[in-house]
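User: what does the whole thing look like in 3D?
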Amino acid sequence: MTADTPALRLEGIVKTFPGVRALDGVSFSVLPGEVHALMGENGAGKSTLMKVLGGIYQPDAGKIFIDERETEMKGPLEAKANGVMFIHQELSLAQELSVAENIYLGELPRKSFGRVDWDTLYSRTDAILAKLKVGFNARTVVGELSIANQQMVEIARALTVDAKAVIFDEPTASLTDAEKVVLFDVIEDLKRQGVGIIYISHRMEEIFRITDRISVLRDGEYRGTLETAATNEDEITQMMIGRSLDLSRNHEHVELGPVALRVEGLSCGHLFQDATFEVREGEVLGFYGLVGAGRTEIAETLFGLRKPTAGRIILKGEEVTISSPIEAIRKGISLVPESRKEQGLVLGMNCRDNMTLPQVGDLTAGPFVSDGAEISIYDQYRDRLQIKSPSWRTTVGNLSGGNQQKIVIGKWLSMRPEVLIVDEPTRGIDVGSKSEIHNLLRELAKQGYAVIVISSEMPEVLHVSDRIIAMYHGRIMREFTAAEVTEDSLIHAISGIAGDAA
Amino acid sequence: MADTAMKSLGGVLARQGILVAFILFMVGFTLWNPRFIDIDNVFGVVRSSAILGVMALGVTFVVIGGNLDLSVGSMLSFSAIVVLDLHENPAFGPALAIPAMFAMTLCLGAINGFLIGYLRLNSLIVTLGMLSAIHGLTLTYSGGQNMDIANQNDTWFDVFGRGSALGIPIPVLIFALLAAILGILLAKTPFGRRVYAVGGNDTAATFSGIPRARVVFMTYMISAFCVATAGLIQASRTMGAQNTVGQGMELEVLAAVILGGASLLGGSGTIFKTVIGVLILGFIQNGLLLAGLEFYVQFVVTWIIIILAVWLDIATKRGKLWSPIA
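Assistant: Here's the predicted 3D structure for the full assembly of 828 residues, as structure tokens:
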């Protein structure tokens, strides 16, 4: 095969669902040894396209070519047999089994009488793991591995076959910066072996770091392919959403109100120690740090989900104890939690009921829930947050990530809190919604809310915060004002390097 | 396209599947044996379904809340035996026996609710254990004897099982009234909403300030209250009871709730659907008897039909009969 023959080519793929044309004649190709980004907002059709490629959906029209040979993907096994491998966003590993068993699940090497040939299994697996330079071996139980290492197991699984194309779907969503570097090395390796790679991500920074070409989908339509080296974030964003975004950092100056929340020497066992900070009305306080630095745990403690082992919480000048979310809510603290699907929403419930859940006990006429009161709250926040949903009756699980997140934000905003804590406000949502949520957070501060934003994305923290607290290993390392903070100083602080200097 | 037609039909079935199935089933059986839809037969079925139905109403709350209650069968035996025994006890008499029995049954519900709600133990294990424990408790209480009301002509106790008002049997009235009250409680009150939230996603419910433990506790109290009511009807209808009168009913109750379409994963179902489920189950069993099949055959056929119903339910939701992924 020459380098010009695509490893994988899609031609005119059409897929319709009742009422929706999810894919409308999408064509694109991946060359061997190329990293090809597939971008688009949530709902643009990326996942559907990948499911067609993986044989999970059958296209209504269009063709799939592998090495220019037309191939029909009737099911996941067929995709695998044709050398198309997926590294899924949500890991699908058996937690109780060993790394080797997971990698060869369904095709364990056998000896006579169907017994598993463990020696061959482990030696084959270790050979693959050696290529990935990982710190665990074939016998390690998957449940004991970090998320990043579990992802490595998924990658190792892709390497067991002679892969033509490997699809990475949001692979860095739960990785730390150090783990990302390892992942990018692996991708680089695959590239050198001539594998075609499709890389799906919302993170521009990564896209520009590792990809060769970028293809963009919008509303199920193919918008075009660009050479990464010859384009920029603005152009891509514009292709994705049809307009340009302003991600610069120019805050209007807001007159700060009194201190809404003050925390003194707050500790919770080994999770975080001696946290002291305050947030004023009209201010966005950012918390930045690596996963596990204790940021989320501080939020959970303030929301009454964890019991502090030391320290004081002073809300509007009065010392309080908060022993349950119910109390936190009553005292005016709201938390938009880190994980939308697990902690934020009841996915099977409709939009309205999700939004009014914390206050449903107050929205009553006599002993009954008042439909009118609920709908009026929903309508108000749907308009204010520009939630796109066919109706309040729509099941929340059917909305895109961005709209789901807006429902969660609406839920907590409608409680009219004194302090609004937002943990990872834009994780896994598309650029358009992301910038809307950023603007909203700024807007809320302007209206006099005290807002705390926790984020793992540096551009986000820099963009929305008036002040930034950097955490490392459960401790606050340093506090920056928006004027003095630089990316370098922030990175140093969260790596524990600037600890002594501060 | 045929495919799209299939899908929109699938959509209707997924939403109203249980009603459609009910109607098809009724029509089919009636064509085969017109006596099936005879007014006396229909009334008979509704009447004999009342006890099961009352229990299913309570279990609906438990299941929507994301749990199971397998203890309702032996709890029914317990409440029937207790109310009959206290009725015969001169210190109580019918007027005191009934509230005393309700209080004792609610205590059993409280044990379930405490263990599952507050201590977060697995509901399958707890209620399976309670099934056995309550059975033992009942036998200990009764000394293994069956209970009978000695002087049946000298008490008003038979009104709950044998009486009627406006030509409608009292058990049916109780079932209808309780269904209406609990239906409104579930669909229209903040408590009902919280049950759905806890069953749908208990973590998100906790993060929304819902007292998960208390909500789960209350679902078991409602379940116990319904069992006590069913036990009262049972005892009053037969004016006597065996220690094993409720044996196996936990599965029939669960079957009715599932047939109604409540998800065993929690978070979905309604009282109305459960009532339909109860009626379907009642008519299936009645139809089998009319067909001249031996009584015991119904255990086999009932479960075959339930498994088919669950399969069809899932199949219509995902649009194919079989799929490698959910």
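In plain terms: The longest helix of chain B spans residues 2-32. The longest strand of chain B covers residues 147-148.
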